[in-house]
Amino acid sequence: MSVANDSHFDFIVVGGGTAGNCIAGRLAENPNVKVLVIEAGVANSHEIEDITTPSKAFGLRGSQYDWAYKTTMIKRDDYERVEKPNTRGKALGGSSTANYFTWIPGSAATFDDWEPYGGRDWTWQGCVEYLRKCATYHDDEGLYPRELQQIGHGGPVQISHAELVPELHTFRDALAQAWVSKGEPLTEDIYSGHMHGLTHCVDSIYKGERQGSYVYLFNRPNVTVLSGAHSKRLLIDPATRVCSGVEVLLPATHSTLRLHATREVILSQGVFETPKLLMLSGVGPRSELSKHHIDLIVDSPHVGQHLLDHPIVPFVLRLKDGLTLDDHLLRSGPAHDAAVSAYRRNRTGPVSSGLLELVGFPRIDARLHQSPAYRKAKAANGGRDPFGPAGQPHFELDFVGMFSSAFQWHYPVPREGSYMTVIVDLLRPVSEGGEVTLNSTDPLVQPNINLNFFGNDLDIVAMREGVRWTYDMLMNGDGFKDLVLAEYPWEMPLHSDEAMDRAVLERSQTGFHPCGTARLSKSIQQGVVDARLRVHGIRNLRVADASVIPVIPDCRIQNSVYMIGEKGADLIKADHRDLYESDLLTMFFRAIQIGLPLGYLNQIEKRLADTEQALFEALTIMRELNASHDRPMIRATRTSPDLRSKSARMQEWSRSPLRDWAERERWWEAQRDQFRVTRTMIGSSPRIEAPPPPTRSERPRMVAAPNLPSRRTSGTAESESSQQQRSDRATEVAQRNPSLYF
User: Fold this and answer.
1) Which residues form a coiled coil (predicted)?
2) Of 136, 193, 545, 672, which has the maximum CB count within 10 A?
């Protein structure tokens, strides 16, 4: 879509990736809000079969839909290796169009490690609702526990368990048998904050097609997507440090556009491009900007630093013929023709598969304790395991039922036989993070990227022992050991520590989970953005993508990046309530319906122009009443002595049970199925089809804020009948006098 120079939008999202599209779609829920998404890749991702067909995912590496970054994997005094390409999606949807689908939230304990950077709002409890908000989980055949419905309900991204293709039946059963024979559990629930065992994968695939973040933009006419556009610099006033837009290059027409945001700019270009654009715009380490003669606006020393990723060691085993999908997907012939026909007919079969059906999360404490280096590191860490201090898994093990060139690009593709690809993924490396620095001031030139894998020798020890544990399970485990014919294309030197250490350095690759280069922080001395994702030192600019992650999740990061987008959207909405206040209003009037103690609302005289003040007062009343009574009741007016000043109202608000946007939204979601509400955005207030007054048993009890003194309107609590009358009166007033409130 073409955009005129000097066009204005309410919000500009720079980068149409996993989080960027999520934010754009959520901000566009108000149809009167104009949102621009700037994307360097193509805009029609959902129409491209190479992207939407699951089994073609491995073939996207190095394609026109891949940024194909040149990356320094390892930079040690004794060993250095540079690789290309490091895949990142170059299409609308970003890496959600090029990833390998797996949907895993991670361990609660690892999210809790975010608290020193982002505060309590970024712990597991502050993030789990957003990990689930983005998706809708489907189990159309009813194969899995109903409790798994919690992992996604009502979100745009349709997710489901990997299709269990019949061709891999023997492979799956033997793998599960071998896993159990080594004393490891089987599980279907790795979604409640604890991960341990072998599990069936949930994927961002539904009915045989990829689900990318572009789904957030469907049916959003107020979202403009400018594709084929490369960001040049952010428009930041050096004097005021206000970001007002972005300047972009259109290589196809050799032109430049200046585009303006009347509200905010949200930077979501991903872990490599986000820090690059910040530095090109004058925000970054002073020394780095000085090196490239860029005028400094904000000296932000952590921009581009703390680059995190999961190092992996892949290996390949040859199995007995006919056990995997090599003939169906890699070679021409009858099996391939049948697989293609099945997919074209009804989107089923091997072509519809994400290729990873089973994934394992083990701990290998016994093996690690055999290493003197590990024992020393654990002692230095206060006796806590450096790789999983709260019981998190040490590794993610992926078992792909075919040869995968995406992880073995140095290996020749076998022309015959059945193979499996195994990926040993170290989930919590202890090496210091890498960095992203400028290679040039030309915005079309990729930055320098150093992943700094194995900067700490302890990571080599862990990876070495993880590979050995996995080999032992497959080569000696019950059931599976009878299927293995040979290693391919060469053997792993399992019996020599020195040779294994060298093999780890030479054969390791990226897990394609980079993050951390603009991390959450409590100050500019700790990171790049604050807990509300605002860039330190710059107004009207936020970052929302994988670069804000301060501690790498112990799993694939797709779900986490969607979470950042969802949470970021709510943070932005909360700071622009004049655009999104209908959510507040709907919640406000819904509270009337269910009999919460909001007082005689006809005494709250101000209406839509002062909705927030009314909400402050109403929720203050709620807090007071619930601190001293067993059930909802009515009390007080806005002229209560301790509510007369704004500061007093704000103090009371901060103590209320629903004191922030996220808590109000959680309360909203918990109650929404009980009522029929017609929601509208700005321009008209919500209309509610009021149900009958709820009975006492139906009325929820709001818990008082902790450590607050009880308050009563008199020395004794009112009688139950009096409380009932007051609650019913509140509902009656709202229903009979809609003109006062709607």
Assistant:
1) none
2) 545
